[in-house]
Specification:
Structural class: alpha/beta
Oligomer: single chain
Helix content: 25-40%
Shape: elongated
Radius of gyration: 33 Å
Largest sheet: 5 strands, parallel
Number of helices: 11
Strand content: 15-25%
Number of strands: 20
Length: 460
């Protein structure tokens, strides 16, 4: 038996395992036969002996016949789609084909799935003729992101008398990836955005020296004053200086994954909101041509295809978004106590636009966040109010040592962040628009700070 299109053999159980597959009916027949044999010996009844041997032999013969059955059944599993957002469904199709010359008996299919995806699916297939095919399907759904194995597929064989059942398993396991939900965001300009960041049209001069010069062939209409005579002499044809090089706008999405900063678990927890928010912001900026880097509080940057820890936007944004969502599908809490590692990761260069999703911050970590902000052209922080998530119907007080969210937001605003508090039920799209309107601009940073280009939109 094979599965998933690959030629393989299902695990074949031994005779001892086959005896362990006796059903209740088979065990009852065997026990009754042995009891009849014992009674015939004690009572001296030869007719009872023949009945006992028949009762005991029937389940044993069924076990032997079923154990030696050599059904050649090929199977495959197809996930449509294999990557789904949280709370969405995926359809799993199972296809069985009898590739032997003999018809099969009644087959029971059972696919192993994690309990979070729903009940274990089971199907009963009637007799399958030689060369015949059967297709069945079921749906799975997960409210929590992650990677979930599906399989191996199990095939249960039974004899016509129902005396024995054997389970033979395929070896192939497929994976369903449940990614965070992505919320569409409006194409607006974020408050405090510095000039030169936005739609990927920023340029840098390449005149630092002769070693940095990259000449190109002369084209009709080029200014003759840009002819580079040294390269012309070397190549034997007119070469001009390429004075401007396009530089893609950059953005860093900072996700605070500290376990001490997020309380609670489950699909409605603040940490899951932060992960979904980071996914939405990253995908939105990728679609607008940004080069996006995902950074966590541990200082770990998600490696992108460009080798520099960033995912390229533009024409390849769909593939980059898929890789980034696959990474966020398995991100988990960290044991870090602070944001120092993240600061070390960004202080080496200009990070462009910074979008941060913070949990609980004390004064010390708010100061570290302020230093992180100094390395960026624009900085927007979404600060989750963990107390609002943890508050029950009757309400509870602040946890010991926890700073109220209003104070945390003010600390970040003083450091130059455009900071907004997040409470349960808040939509990221509304907060994104509020950040564009300047709600939360820090002192000295007007809400309508001028910026010739937009974050996730066209020129204003």
């Amino acid at each position: 038996m094979s599965e998933g299109g690959g030629e393989g053999t299902a695990e074949h159980s031994g005779l001892r395992a086959a005896l362990g597959g006796l059903t209740t009916r088979g065990r009852s027949f065997l026990a009754a036969g042995l009891a009849a044999v014992a009674c015939s010996y004690l009572l001296g009844q030869p007719d009872l002996l023949r009945v006992g041997l028949l009762l005991a032999a029937l389940p044993l013969v069924c076990v032997l016949v079923l154990h030696r059955t050599r059904y050649r059944v090929a199977g495959s599993r197809t996930l449509s789609p294999a990557r789904v957002p949280a709370a969405a469904e995926s359809r799993v199709r199972l296809r069985m084909e009898n590739v032997s010359r003999l018809p099969t008996g009644v087959l029971m299919l059972q696919d192993r799935v994690p309990y979070v995806l729903g009940p274990r699916p089971r199907f009963v297939l009637d007799r399958v003729e030689p060369g015949g095919r059967r297709e069945v399907s079921y749906r799975v759904r997960a409210d929590l992101r992650g990677r979930y194995p599906l399989g191996p597929l199990q095939l249960r064989l039974t004899d016509p008398f129902g005396m024995c059942e054997l389970t033979r398993s395929f070896s192939t396991v497929d994976t369903l990836t449940v990614v965070p939900r992505v919320e569409p965001l409006p194409p607006v300009r974020l408050a405090g955005e510095a000039a030169g960041y936005g739609d990927g049209r920023r340029r840098s001069l390449a005149l630092a020296g002769e070693d940095d010069l990259i000449p190109r062939d002369y084209r009709h209409g080029d200014d003759l004053r840009r002819v580079h005579w040294r390269s012309t002499a070397r190549h034997g044809e007119l070469m001009v200086r390429r004075e401007e090089q396009p530089q893609k706008a950059r953005c860093t999405v900072l996700l605070d994954t500290r376990a001490v900063a997020h309380q609670g678990a489950g699909p409605d927890s603040p940490f899951e909101w932060a992960v979904a928010g980071a996914a939405s912001a990253a995908v939105h900026l990728l679609e607008r041509g940004f080069s996006v880097r995902l950074l966590t509080d541990t200082g770990t940057s998600v490696p992108g295809p460009d080798g520099a820890g960033g995912f390229a936007g533009g024409a390849e944004s769909a593939d980059a978004a898929g890789l980034l969502l696959d990474t966020l599908a398995v991100v988990d809490h960290s044991e870090a106590e602070g944001l120092s590692a993240a600061y070390d990761a960004v202080r080496g260069g200009d990070e462009g636009v910074l979008i941060a999703f913070f949990g609980d911050l004390d004064e010390e970590q708010a100061a570290v966040a302020g230093r992180i902000r100094q390395r960026c052209g624009a900085a927007v922080a979404f600060v989750l109010d963990g107390d609002a998530w943890a508050r029950g119907p009757g309400g509870i007080g602040f946890a010991a040592g926890q700073v109220p969210v209003a104070e945390r937001v003010q600390l970040l605003r003083r450091a130059g962040w455009t900071a907004l508090p997040v409470t349960p039920g808040d939509a990221l799209a509304d907060l994104w628009r509020a950040a564009a309107d300047g709600a939360g601009a820090g002192p000295g940073r007007p809400a309508d700070a001028s910026a010739p280009e937009t974050v996730g939109g066209g020129r204003s």
